[in-house]
Amino acid sequence: MAKDKIPVYNIHHLQLQPVAQGDFLAEHFSDYLHKHYEHLHFPHRHNFYHLVLFINGKGSHTVDFNKYTVKPYQVYCMIPGQVHSWHFTSSINGYVINFSAGFYKNFLLNERYLDNLSFFSGNSKDGVFQLPVTLHEEVTVLFEKLIDLQKQPQPAYDLIRVILLQLLLLMDGQAEQKRIPAIPNQKLTLLNNFKRLIDAHYKSIRLPKEYADLLYVTPNHLNALCQDLLGKTAGELIRERILLEAKRLLTNVNMTVTEIAYELNFQDNSYFNRFFKKYEQVTPDDFRKQFSK
After folding, report:
1. Confidence band, pLDDT 50/70/90 cuts, at residue 20
2. Which intervals hold domain HTH araC/xylS-type (predicted)?
3. Where in the chain is the domain with CATH 2.60.120.280?
């Protein structure tokens, strides 16, 4: 069976020359676009964190099938695995930073620290926001400093980590304003653990009760948590993850709908078709046709 999927790029794919530490990349977006344009306008994934700030230019950015119009001082933050593509209608200026999931390993005591940043939730709507005017200068200075540090013959990567973290925390303070009310740490940890389990097991575990058992909570408690914090049931979160992966796979013309149903562990193609149409209002084939247009 054909198993070709959406291209997955790592940072080494995006570096034209080897660097001392290949899990960090900072560039002006115009330079980045010039080097990699042939890849960026096709749907693709990264296995690293991706951060973009636009200063000016026109176009759109599609992240996990949500389309956004590019605006000045707009920020995009993506985690490994999200599918996205760019469509520009004019020259673009701004900044891009890529860093691996292990860039802060052994540097921060909490290895899951980045998961607590509001824009790294994996939900594209959380990862897109506007910078206030009061932060324009401070944030652009930090981007420029990171680019300059990387260009050094022997980059000080620990200093880069500190400045990048400063940048992330500045932006998180702005992005968190969208999260009202603030989520208590204990609840947020449980929710993030549930989301991580879904990402790891959505193909094989479909019932909220099974996830509740893995989290050592009752199904009612898990469901109440999701309803309280997200306004959705635990079952809806599981279903949305399955549908998201189905849509990601449908963008790949080298996989048939039957192969996608098999990949997602559906019993048969007809069950997958009914499931997809019930929640997306179109068949998998129709979704693929719409996307290709």
Report:
1. very low
2. 192-290
3. 8-178
Task: Specify the pTM.
Answer: 0.81
Among residues 183, 182, 184, 241, the alpha carbon closest in space to that of 211 is found at 241
Specify the CATH number of the domain 8-178.
2.60.120.280
Cα angle 233-238-244, degrees, rounded to a multiple of 5 = 120
Tell me the DSSP string of 203-258.
TT---HHHHHHHHTS-HHHHHHHHHHHHSS-HHHHHHHHHHHHHHHHHT-TTS-HH
- Express each pLDDT in 227-250 by its tens digit: 998 899 999 999 999 999 999 889
Structure tokens at 101: 């999931």
Domain with CATH 1.10.10.60 in the chain: 185-292
**Cβ–Cβ under 8 Å, residues 97 and 26:** yes
Report d(CA 55, CA 71) in Å as an integer: 8
Homologous superfamily of the 185-292 domain (CATH) = Homeodomain-like (1.10.10.60)
